[in-house]
Design goal:
Layout (H helix, E strand, L loop, with lengths): L7 H13 L3 H14 L5 H12 L3 H18 L2 H14 L8
Helix pairs in contact: 1-2, 2-3, 3-4, 3-5, 4-5
InterPro entries: TPR-like_helical_dom_sf (IPR011990), TPR_rpt (IPR019734)
Pfam families: TPR_19
Organism: Pedobacter cryoconitis
Length: 99
Amino acid sequence: MATEPNDPFILYALATEYNSLNDTELAFQYYHKLVEDHPSYVGTYYHLGKLYQKQGQTDKAVAIYQLGMKRAREKGDGHAFSELQGAYNSAAGLDYEDD
């Protein structure tokens, strides 16, 4: 049911909208609800990690990316895993550029 307030897509849309409006408190609230109630909704981890980075909380971002990679691997979602790994590498300072 599309109007179900616990529907992961609705929660994700709300979190994303609050994030775009720079209402970080509500964005965090909805992202955390997704992580707790819908851990296999892997798109959450990337955006929550980015929000942590935007707030200067790199350690929390790294932890969320790691959890997201674990969930993506469990789900067999190679694309999400790859995106999360790239974000993790960047946040953890593991980006290697060829000069």
